[in-house]
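In line with agreed milestones, the collection of sequences with tokenised folds has grown. One record among many is set out beneath this paragraph:
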Amino acid sequence: MFSSVWNFIKRHKKKFIFTGAVVGGVYLLSKYAQKKIQEVQEKEASEYIAQARRQFHFESNQRTCNMTVLSMLPPLREAIVTQLNSESLTAMLKTKPANKLEIWENLKIISFTRTVVAVYSTCMLVVLLRVQLNIIGGYLYLDNSVGKSAASPLTPPDVQQQYLSSIQHLLGDGLTELISRVKTAVQNSLGGVSLKQSLSLLELEQQLIWIRAEVDSGRPLSSYMLADDEEVLADQACGLTEKDLVTIRLLNETRDMLDSPDLSKVLGACLNRGFSRLLDNLAEFFRLPVSDSAPDSLSAVSLPLAKIIPIINGQINSVCSETPSHFVQDLLLNNQVKEFAAIVYETFSTPQELQK
């Protein structure tokens, strides 16, 4: 029996050798493939974890942005009210002065100016802090990445503090310059409108459109948000130490972002939404009684300008409210703001950016 088996093997020897080689090759190839698949799976898992970690850090950073905006609204409101103090004029009117008409005219200009400035500056605050905190957030993500030395952070805490203090331009000189620009536009639009003249909500909206058109046609809005003079930037950095140079670099990177066309679109979208929400607030005072009906309720009710002024004057408390209002929420939850924030964060949390 063994001889017959041996003869069979000799007759088919080449086939057995070929089959053995194939089986061996398939086995080795299979092991190689399994190893490669495992490597790919491990790489994908690592990338997924890194991406999830990055996403979590980004979302946490956006919550920080929102909280920071809310915390900055009271000082912004105080800065506006200090420069546009309508309360003192209101108090003077109660004393029945001889120049009552003159005071009313001043109150008209100041009331509209401070509400328009409140909308502009709040939108600017939201956008500026989104840019600044996502630049910082991107660098912090890199600082906390695996393999990054904790001894040499990209943005040390004192640098962050110096850099973020540049927000004071918007609350200081930038705000003063914005007020001057808006006040001129308000004067040109409403200066000749009598206090007795009645305006509908549509007519009031048209006045705001004219004011915005004049403000937007002036210097770039980004100039009110961050000082653009190189010497001022250097002064803000307070010297020429290594940390101060990092601060100047951050300020320059912020300036690049603020000057980008994308940011102009985002800020424009915020302003559109902000003024739309302002008109929604004003509409509450132009409503017809429930029993009445009109084909066009927006133009059916008109109020004398003298009655509109106190309504306009009080809007700053809604616009610059640290308590989350519809106005502020509309800006913080704006999709274009979110998308731009993601672009900024992506730009500065990518390691390759450090080599550019």
Notes: Strands lie at 198-200, 302-304. The longest helix spans residues 13-83. Residues 45-49 have pLDDT under 50 and may be disordered.
